[in-house]
Amino acid sequence: MNVVVVESPAKAKTINKYLGSGYKVLASFGHVRDLPAKDGSVLPDQDFEMLWEVDGASAKRMKDIADAVKSSDGLFLATDPDREGEAISWHVLDMLNKKRVLNGKSVKRVVFNAITKKAVLDAMADPRDIDVPLVDAYLARRALDYLVGFNLSPVLWRKLPGARSAGRVQSVALRLVCDRESEIERFISEEYWNLSALLKTPRGDEFEARLVSANGKRLPPRAIGNGEDAGRLKALLEGASYIVDTVEAKPVKRNPGPPFTTSTLQQAASSNLGFSASRTMQIAQKLYEGVDIGGETVGLITYMRTDGVQMAPEAIDAARRAILDQFGERYLPEKARFYSTKAKNAQEAHEAIRPTDFYRSPDRLRKFLDADQIRLYELIWKRGIASQMASAEIERTTAEITADNKGEKAGLRAVGSVIRFDGFIAAYTDQKEDGEQSDDGDEDGRLPEINARETLAKQKINSTQHFTEPPPRYSEASLIKKMEELGIGRPSTYAATLATLRDRDYVTIDKRKLIPQAKGRLVTAFLESFFTKYVEYDFTADLEEKLDRISAGELNWKQVLRDFWKDFFAQIEDTKELRVTNVLDSLNEALAPLVFPKREDGSDPRICQVCGTGNLSLKLGKYGAFVGCSNYPECNYTRQLSSENGGEAEGAALNEPKNLGTDPTTGEELTLRSGRFGPYIQRGDGKEAKRASLPKGWKREDIDYEKAMALISLPRDIGKHPETGKMISSGIGRYGPFLLHDGSYANLETVEDVFSVGLNRAVTVIAEKANKAPGRGARGTPAALKTLGDHPDGGAITVRDGKYGPYVNWGKVNATLPKGKDPQAITVEEALALITEKAGKAPAGKPARAKAKPKAAAAEAKTTKTAAKPKATKAKAPAKSKKG
């Protein structure tokens, strides 16, 4: 009997069926060791020795693997075919060696790019040894990320209260988003005019031609800069006669693109389907690991972490057969197409993302997949099959026309494209963002019959005013594309990097656009001022290239770390002498458009408008940065620093109170004010004054006397409960609008309900809460935020949000997510690991919650030293899976 180690239990189950009774397939559940999330896990003074921690769940799984290996004939390490998968195999092997259970047994590494019987059996027949340079590259990357995160983040905490973390790739990605925002702020719109003529042929067909030259001078785009010039040219065209100089029709061929890589899949899924990068990878993981197709679990796509663009020869042959069957002979090119990667050292997994079987068309699988799965599979299938299809044949026609007005001449041009043969477009076309040219080859429309030297009749002259637009904000897709172009990060890291920026509140997403928040811009400005080198695009890309050279066996990983650490440590040491005043002066200058937006009256935006003499400046408080007056405490003007406030913030957010009226009960004035945490209502003055912040969704400009009175009067008594005789009241708390009765709370759906809910409805809401949670103080089962899939032992695994935060649920087992973990990003492997650990601790039949970082038994949880080969995952978390 041989032991096979894979990463996920879903794969273990499927692969065990393929291999039969002579093999025992066990899952590692992702990584089995991690760097503890504390300082001192990587030791530069000891030549970058790393300390590895094994938590209780991983220790138990490794014990199961070790026990199986003891009685086995050999071990096959079959983790994923990328750098991270190689590292997991290395970790497993290193721990088994330390347990002394191998005793000369055969150990082989096998990789398969798809979870199909053929792919698995072929891989088992062609094993290899662990790729040491690939592991070295992983170790170097892990150590670098740890050293940057655990040395740079504390500097931020000391110098920029409210900032949460910095990272080697994360901070550079954030800089891209912030730099784009600065471009938008600096952008000055310019006026330009476009002129065109609506013309008619002798056959009565109309078409439009645009002005491209006047009086022998070419007019480049946006050359007509004002209405006066536009009017003069329009007059020329109005009185002109028109004749066709030349008509040229050129055949153009458009070739298909290669199958998807990780980054191009994430970009296409964002543009075509509206999926986030993390959502795309979550769905792709499921399609790769396998779906039940008529009683058989089958992997539907190849491995989805790759920067390779080529398909295996047998896949190309299968795609060509499918094209012949489904599209016809015309759509099949004479020879197969071959693609080469643009990546400098593509190594993640060497084949592009493609269907494992091109005869499994989307229509055949529709009944087996959920809505999002079929949409992503269809995208992959279409792109894969299109990559081997014939070129699209397009005829592009250009007509050059002369306008003659009593010797004054102008040139016009009409362009049209016609698809003569759709070719690969019959299967797949990309959707573009931000006005990029479409892929359909028909962006100019179709021209009617036009012949050289014939006279045209003028129908109408169009003169339209335009203004230049600032560059668009990045979407997830365009940011990934830019990072790939610059060589920053790697495909397998993009989704996690973007998720981190959102989790840290450095960026928000609005209408699929990434908007940097004030906190993110402060961090970027700080790093650009005091750690310039480490957020430079070229430096980061050069470091990525060195990591790739390590994986190719060209560089020593320890030497790369030594070279990096020498300069980086010196920079960290220099910041110890950095004064907060130096930081604020630098940030005031770097973020002037955000901190001191221009005023409509043209006055100095740095002068306080309340006292008239103080200078405004960034201030640092416990909860982050805000803008305050230098004359504090005599002048107590403050306002929030917000990317959304813009110039409006200066006038609207002044601390000069706005009088709304008088409370009829107390006789005190109601005022609308703004503080460092936003606008609020205040009744009275002094320390005893009552204050109430505006609820989420309420705008300052909409606040009137009635709203202010309603808000400041909370909590609101609704009436006595008919059964208990105790008062029911409504209010707004930390977790939103609520009802309070007899010490128990029940949530209300909206803020407006707080002010309008009546006694009957309140009693119903309280009763519904009680029915969900019988017994005093008990809680009902919250609705599932998402369903991850089925547990190997049966039953659904869900993610839910409870009183103490989000958790995963399986049957009676509840396991709290690690702190900071996005509940939407958790993978089934991570959930299974938490559930397994929790189930092992809870008394039989008794549900319990797992802590974010469970204490393991001394024999199971331990920290090990590795001098030669250290390991790494994320610098923060106890979850041991690289997915998500």
From TrEMBL:
Domain Toprim: where? 1-117
Tell me the InterPro entries matching this sequence.
Answer: Topo_IA, Topo_IA_2, Topo_IA_AS, Topo_IA_cen, Topo_IA_cen_sub1, Topo_IA_cen_sub2, Topo_IA_cen_sub3, Topo_IA_core_domain
The text of the family note is: Belongs to the type IA topoisomerase family.
Site feature: Interaction with DNA: 31, 141-142, 145, 157, 305, 504
Comp. bias (Low complexity) = 855-870
Q: Which PROSITE patterns match?
A: TOPO_IA_1, TOPO_IA_2, TOPRIM
Which SUPFAM superfamilies is this protein grouped with? Prokaryotic type I DNA topoisomerase, Zinc beta-ribbon
Q: Which GO terms describe its biological process?
A: DNA topological change
Q: Which SMART domains match?
A: TOP1Ac, TOP1Bc, TOPRIM
Q: Mind telling me which NCBIfam families this protein's record contains? A: topA_bact
Name-wise, this protein is: DNA topoisomerase 1
Q: Which PANTHER family match?
A: DNA TOPOISOMERASE (PTHR42785:SF1), DNA TOPOISOMERASE, TYPE IA, CORE (PTHR42785)
Q: Where is the Topo IA-type catalytic domain?
A: 131-572
Q: Where is this region: Disordered?
A: 646-688, 838-884
One GO CC annotation: chromosome
Q: How does it assemble?
A: Monomer.
Functional summary from the UniProt entry: Releases the supercoiling and torsional tension of DNA, which is introduced during the DNA replication and transcription, by transiently cleaving and rejoining one strand of the DNA duplex. Introduces a single-strand break via transesterification at a target site in duplex DNA. The scissile phosphodiester is attacked by the catalytic tyrosine of the enzyme, resulting in the formation of a DNA-(5'-phosphotyrosyl)-enzyme intermediate and the expulsion of a 3'-OH DNA strand. The free DNA strand then undergoes passage around the unbroken strand, thus removing DNA supercoils.
Q: Looking at its record, which EC class is this enzyme?
A: isomerase
Entry EC number(s)? 5.6.2.1
Catalytic residues identified in the record: 303 (o-(5'-phospho-dna)-tyrosine intermediate)
Q: Where is the composition biased (Basic residues)?
A: 871-884
Q: What is the lineage of its organism?
A: Bacteria, Pseudomonadati, Pseudomonadota, Alphaproteobacteria, Hyphomicrobiales
Question: Which GO molecular function terms does the record list?
Answer: DNA binding; DNA topoisomerase type I (single strand cut, ATP-independent) activity; zinc ion binding
Q: Which gene encodes it?
A: topA
